[in-house]
UniProtKB/TrEMBL annotation:
Keywords: Cell membrane, Glycoprotein, Glycosidase, Hydrolase, Lectin, Membrane, Repeat, Transmembrane, Transmembrane helix. It comes from the Eukaryota. This is hyaluronoglucosaminidase. SMART domains: G8. It comes from Salmo salar. One of its GO terms (cellular component) is plasma membrane. It is found in: Cell membrane. Its EC number is 3.2.1.35.
Length: 1383
């Protein structure tokens, strides 16, 4: 994934020879749920006292001078001598420089430490010295040093020395490093990377009152002021990559095994499957008391097949009735040398293989003395599963404190190998890595230390210990769920020295560890700043402006700012940080590339003030982003309600509305670029676009109006978000830009619901909209939402959503009349409800229950009963087209649907929510669901719930073309030909539908009852969107066009009612009758509201007519009829203007009818239903007849691509194998087939079926079936399989000779020949023609009652490892060049 070549402005880095790196402070196999305290302080070379800044100490040389002046007569001769001496001295100085380098070094102009102008510097350790390096001081630091502080200024330069062997290992310990006014600090260079180990340790505590703070910088920092240079370039190492093979919890798919017991007398036995490490049989044989048990043990051993693993351990004693024939059996079958000489209560343990002889046996004995033994009898032996996973089998026996103890263990400790997507030969033993969670909880991320691995390929590493959680390394159900694996170690380390526990004013009520780390702050007008492949640990402080890396008000740092080499950070490892990762503050044009931010507090990659633009984030990884205290948006619920020093008086913040937004990527202006990043676990969101109405913080007033809401979106391509609690991607909301006051007591910069993203050209609302493109988003295992996106126009394409509480939810950029109507579209995407990634019950996952297509136990989002939805409709208009849905199966506990609606929705919905060209796989049990009273839905009776509707444009959802699907109990949309779908709680109807926006004034807390004259017995009651008691209210019913309706109130009629036509096409009409007291007088007028200018045009009055029949004849005129006997004011709502695109209103504005009523009966309840019906009752009828049900398959429906991966430039092959055993056929399961990219090859005859696929092109090259393993099949396996082929194998029935197939699977990718004795079905993926087996090569065997079922794998195509020629184009690199090139 990571590429060493970036944009042309970034040098191509040359990898140095490998070094042995070790990063202090990381714990092998450290699990993330509880953050451990930082490592204890390393003792400094000499004591460091909390003193004030000492007198400045200038670094000087002691240079020799000439002696006394000679006589005048000797001057000429002396000058000649001096000239010669200077020349000779220069020669010797140059020679000394050469000799000071190691013999293997060659002068290189690219290496800063090779400069002849440098002087060797060995300042030693003086923790009280404030060292200043000034103009003329050009130092090469050759050894470790300790200062109170180091200031480099006025042209001074400090360069860390290096050598070819990488053995310098220099540590600088200081309270701070300040570079300013022409000063420079260099460790390596882009074309001469640092080989040795360089460490800068930043010292100090937050409570050292005697230590003065440096203005704008505080304490414990590296500061880069104007005119300064900071160049740090460590050895280039792959920053992060992806797993290519799943790693189960414990490292073994069987989960491992551990057993220990006291007083388990006799010989305890375990039989282990040599292919899978599964425990097959457990038993205790009391050979001390029972001869029969001895015989049973012998018989069991004799019945086991050759190759089976057997392990024995004595509990108490086993000798009294251990028969000689049993001993001989143990000796002959297991190779024991001790069994014949076992004594009373002697501890004995054995691990061996049936038929393996002495060489396969590991055993141990210990003598028994006075209920104790001389240690533990321990036997251990290493094995490998059939697909190459190493494991150990251990048996032990001992007497301890008078108790006999025996036990067994099967595990993969120190044997787990991670298979990775990229070449990681630069990762070294002793380095530390982190593997991301692939479940709902980010706390399943795990740290490991790398171990030597002589047998590993360049894409494999071995880790210490074993994983506690499972980590996916596959594309699952078409969505890329491979775990990120990041290298934490670098050979340049900058870290803050920490205390063991929290102290002082470091928010110890929230954190149990010290949070006062170091920080790097870069100010504007610097000369040059480039940071690459540096490790930053224990950095950041819970104070504003103190971050691991902080570009502070630097302005343009690319060509626009005059930089020939634009600033960048590349390949950084920022971990265990106490305040963010990288902060970009009033800085534009920065490239942040290949950087890892792990286990941090507060927003990780952070744009601060809302004015930062043109920054590019390329291939960065952030994971385990925890809450912090700095901003309300950083805080969790406890912090939010506890930190109240900046709210007005005694105001208590609302956590859900003002806080709880901590995000891995906090993007405060849309004009920034995100390409190929991963947000792999945050307390709230992975990527959050938030909108500042004005510049905030230190930048307040610099940009009075940011117009962020109107600014077009930068590049968004190929980003992945998973394991986040609130949402993977969140585009919505703003921040409060005023201080707390009585009018608004909330804290400055708290979350605010005041922004709606609506991008236009040049951020000008009078210019055309610019659609924001979200391209290739992968969102999985997000607890609440895969993505929540508000605004428009917005398009999502080529994206995959899986295992989210809700896959994707759009929200409009407001409600009428503020929202002008916009487009939100999803196309060419995949939605998976519950995938084969079942997760792991632990690591702060809260819910565990049945689900998925297989009905097995799995982790669950939100709750066991939470209604999982793929695409959620909130308001609209939205369009989803050419997309696929898989694995939405409702259970007894929850409703799981492909399409659903926002729960407990008060908001309006539009009938212009268009669904078309959708594909629903057979694993979708509920295509749509409209809710039902109960948990999560409550009464399901809010206005939005009742008006839920969508348009099935082509019938791909219901089978009925151009129909509308709504709530079954909504009779405003029904006619007699509608089709009920009870399971959905829905109804499918034909017709034309639009909304009427009804706004009332002068009557609060009114409910509106709407009856259609066709169905007066089934009115729709709306309570309104505004809170009860509001002076005005609004309702938005969806009405079938060309029908008549009556409107009634549960109290006095409002004195003013405005009815606006929403989504009406020209000529659409409805007839409405509004209920009023009989003595009411009216003023009725029509107008058109231009919302941009807020001008009302075409104002005209309605005139009265004296009968409904007369009104019906004058449809085109503006007339009304008041039926005083009933109390109904009848008038037509008819659209006279055309509507453009997705706008709610016409091209001229919003057509409205305003009714102003006066009455003396102002306290009467205005419900005219009893008088209106049956007088106005009509026979139900359809305006548009129902279409016929289509029985043809949907053409061109669903996403065209089968795989949605994070490397979209690569191709993948979808394979499915369905083998079936004889027992399964007897129970009615008769299908057996192999599918390759939706092309299915069925096999109906018993036997073995093989399909070969070209590994480069993905084309099927051969398919063969054999009734049994015979000479023909043997010859085919030897010579008939095409080279460079993916081999797929399945079985039907129980073919003869299946055992003989085993040895032919080894050349196809198996580590050893599998045991196929008594196996009833087989599924196999292999590769013909490779030197090393691909990580996806695997075998599954079926035996007993449970069959294998349908097995699916997605296999990479066109790899160089197959011998293929790479032809794909890296679009992400093209976009990177576009984003970072000259503008």
């Amino acid at each position: 994934m990571q590429m060493s070549d970036g944009p042309s402005r970034v040098p191509v880095f040359v990898a140095p020879p490998n070094g042995n790196l070790r990063s202090p402070g990381c714990v092998p196999s450290r699990v993330i749920p509880v953050r451990s305290p930082p490592p204890a302080k390393a003792p400094p070379p000499s004591p460091l006292k909390p003193i004030g800044p000492p007198p400045e100490c200038r670094a000087t040389f002691n240079l020799s001078e000439e002696g006394q002046h000679r006589e005048r007569a000797q001057i000429l001769r002396k000058n000649t001598f001096i000239c010669f001496s200077v020349s000779l001295g220069a020669f010797f100085l140059f020679l000394i420089l050469i000799l000071s380098l190691t013999s293997g070094d060659v002068l290189d102009d690219n290496c800063p430490d090779h400069s002849p102008s440098l002087s060797s510097w060995n300042p030693g350790h003086n923790p009280e010295k404030a060292m200043v390096v000034r103009g003329g001081d050009l130092f090469r630091l050759d050894s470790s040093a300790t200062f109170y502080s180091l200031t480099i200024q006025s042209g001074g330069r400090v360069v860390f020395a290096d050598n070819t062997e990488g053995s310098k290992n220099i540590t600088l310990r200081t309270r701070y490093v300040l570079i300013e006014d022409g000063g420079s600090l260099h460790i390596g260079a882009p074309k001469c990377r640092y080989r040795s180990r360089a460490t800068i340790t930043l010292l100090g505590r937050s409570d050292e009152k005697a230590v003065a703070e440096v203005p704008e910088l505080g304490r414990k920092f590296i500061g880069v002021r104007g005119g300064a240079t900071l160049e740090l370039h460590g050895a280039e190492r792959l920053s992060w990559t992806l797993l290519t093979r799943s790693v189960p919890s414990s490292g073994l798919a069987t989960g491992g095994y551990a057993f220990q017991r006291n007083f388990s007398r006799g010989i305890n036995l375990r039989v282990v499957d040599q292919d899978t490490a599964a425990i097959l049989f457990t038993e205790r044989y009391d050979t001390y008391e029972s001869r029969n048990d001895s015989r049973r043990l012998m018989q069991l051993l004799q019945s086991l097949p050759v190759g089976r693993i057997v392990t024995l351990a004595v509990g108490d004693s086993a000798t009294k009735n251990l028969l000689d024939e049993t001993k001989r059996t143990i000796q002959s079958l297991l190779g024991s040398t001790y069994v014949h000489d076992l004594k009373y209560r002697q501890a004995w343990a054995l691990v061996s293989v049936i038929g393996g002889g002495n060489g396969s046996c590991s055993e141990d004995v210990r003598e028994h003395e006075n209920h104790d033994t001389g240690g533990k009898a321990l036997a251990r032996k290493n094995f490998s599963t059939v697909d190459g996973v190493g494991f150990s089998v251990t048996a032990y026996s001992e007497w301890r404190n008078g108790f006999p103890i025996s036990g067994f263990q099967v595990d993969a400790v120190d044997q787990v190998v991670l298979n990775l997507q990229d070449d990681v030969h630069t990762w070294q033993p002793g380095n530390h890595v982190v593997v991301a969670s692939t479940d709902y909880s980010m706390h399943q991320a795990e740290e490991f230390t790398l171990l030597p691995c002589p047998h590993c390929t360049s894409r494999q590493v071995r880790v210490q210990g074993k994983p506690q959680f499972g980590h996916m390394g596959e594309i699952v159900d078409g969505v890329d769920m491979r775990a990120e694996v990041a290298l934490l170690s670098r050979n340049i380390l900058i870290y803050g020295e920490m205390e063991n526990t929290c102290y002082g004013n470091n928010w110890c009520q929230f954190f149990g560890h010290d949070t006062y780390g170091g920080h790097i702050k870069i100010f504007g007008n610097f000369t040059s700043v480039h940071l690459s492949h540096v490790e930053l640990r224990n950095m950041g402080q819970q104070e504003q402006g103190r971050y691991p890396v902080h570009f502070h008000r630097c302005g343009d740092v690319d060509w626009r700012g005059g930089y020939r080499e634009p600033a960048y950070v590349d390949g950084l490892s920022i971990h265990h940080s106490f305040s963010r990762c990288i902060t970009i503050h009033a800085t534009n044009g920065l490239l942040v590339k290949d950087t890892v931010g792990y286990d941090t507090l507060g927003h990780c990659f952070f744009l601060k003030d809302g004015m930062e633009q043109r920054n590019t984030f390329f291939h960065n990884l952030g994971l385990v982003t925890r809450p912090g205290t700095l901003l309300p948006t950083d805080r969790n619920e406890t912090m939010c309600t506890s930190i109240r020093d900046k709210v007005y008086k005694n105001y208590t913040p609302s956590p859900s509305m003002e806080c709880k937004a901590v995000s891995t990527f906090w993007i405060a202006n849309p004009n920034n670029n995100l390409i190929s990043n991963a947000a792999a676990g945050s307390q709230d969101a992975g990527i959050w676009y938030v909108f500042h109405s004005s510049s905030t913080g230190d930048s307040h007033g610099l940009v009075p109006e940011t117009r962020a809401e109107l600014t077009p979106l930068g590049i968004f391509y190929n980003n992945r978000v998973h394991s986040n609690f609130k949402a993977g991607l969140f585009i919505d909301k703003g921040v409060k830009t005023t201080n707390a006051s009585a009018a608004d007591p909330r804290e400055y910069l708290c979350l605010d619901n005041n922004a709606r993203f609506r991008p236009h050209e040049n951020a000008d609302p009078n210019r055309p909209r610019v659609a924001a493109l979200i391209d290739t988003l992968i969102a999985f295992k997000n607890n609440d939402l895969g993505a929540w996106i508000r605004g428009g126009d917005i398009t999502i394409q080529n994206s995959g959503f899986a295992d989210n509480g809700v896959g994707l939810s759009f929200a409009s950029d407001g409600s009428y009349p503020k929202d002008e109507g916009s487009s939100q579209e999803v196309t060419q995407s995949l939605f998976v409800g519950e995938s084969r990634n079942r997760g792991f019950n632990g690591g702060q996952n809260k819910y565990w229950g049945q689900g998925g297509a297989d009905g097995k136990m799995r982790t669950l989002p939100r709750n066991r009963t939470f209604p999982i939805r793929g695409f959620q409709i909130y308001d609209g208009p939205v369009r989803i087209t050419q997309s696929t849905f898989r694995n939405y199966i409702p259970t007894k506990e929850r409703f799981t649907s492909a399409v659903g609606f926002n729960l407990k929705n008060t908001w309006q919905l539009t009938p212009r929510n268009n669904l078309s060209k959708l594909s629903f796989q057979p694993t979708v049990g509920l295509r749509a669901f409209f809710g039902r009273p109960g948990q999560w839905f409550d009464e399901n009776d809010l206005d939005g719930d009742k008006n839920s509707i969508f348009h099935d444009v082509d019938g791909s959802v219901t089978g009925y073309r151009d129909t509308y699907v709504g709530r079954a109990d909504n009779y405003l949309i029904r006619h007699p030909g509608c089709v009920n779908i009870t399971q959905w709680n829905g109804v499918v109807c034909s017709g034309t539908y639009s909304q009427v926006y009804i706004q009332t004034q002068g009557a609060s807390s009114l409910s509106l009852s709407i009856s259609r004259d066709d169905y007066p017995e089934a009115p729709l009651v709306l309570r309104g969107i505004n809170s009860q008691g509001a002076l005005s209210q609004q309702y938005q019913p969806i009405l079938m066009m060309s029908k008549s309706y009556t409107l009634h109130w549960n109290g006095p009629a409002p004195r003013e009612t405005v009815l606006s036509l929403i989504n009406f096409n020209q000529g659409d009409w409805v007839l409405v009758g509004l209920c009023y007291p009989y003595d009411t007088t009216f003023q009725v007028m029509a107008d058109i509201n231009d919302r941009q200018s807020n001008i009302f045009d075409d104002i005209s009055d309605y005139g009265p007519v004296f009968s409904l029949a007369d009104l019906e004849k004058r449809l085109l005129e503006r007339k009304y009829f008041f039926d005083r006997s009933v109390g109904l004011l009848w008038l037509y709502l008819r659209a006279r203007q055309g509507r453009d695109g997705h706008s709610y209103c016409s091209v001229k504005g919003c057509e409205r009818v305003k009714v102003m009523a006066s009455t003396s009966s102002s306290k009467l309840t205005c419900n005219c239903t009893a008088k209106a019906y049956p007088k106005y009752t009509k026979t139900p009828s359809a305006v548009v007849p129902m279409p016929t049900l289509s029985t043809q398959p949907c053409k061109d429906c669903g996403a065209s691509q089968l795989v949605f991966s994070s490397d979209p430039w690569n191709s993948y092959l979808q394979t499915q194998i369905k083998s079936v055993s004889s027992k399964e056929q007897q129970t009615g399961d008769t299908q057996s087939f192999i599918t390759v990219n939706s092309e299915t090859f069925s096999f109906t005859q018993p036997g073995i079926f093989l399909v070969s696929v070209d590994a480069c092109s993905g084309k099927v090259t051969n398919k063969r079936s054999f009734s049994k393993m015979d000479s023909k099949m043997e010859e085919y396996l030897k010579t008939g399989l095409p080279k460079r082929s993916i081999v797929l194998l399945g079985t039907r029935g129980q073919p003869d000779g299946l055992v003989s197939v085993a040895r032919y699977l080894v050349p196809l990718g198996m580590t050893k020949a599998p045991d196929l004795q008594s196996k009833e079905s087989l599924v196999f993926w292999g590769f013909q023609g490779g030197s090393a087996p691909p990580p996806w090569a695997s075998i599954l065997v079926g035996q007993g009652e449970e069959g294998l079922g349908l097995q699916e794998r997605y296999l990479p195509l066109g790899l160089e490892a197959y011998g293929c020629t790479q032809t794909s184009t890296r679009r992400d690199l093209e976009l990177l060049r576009t984003a970072t090139g000259p503008q």
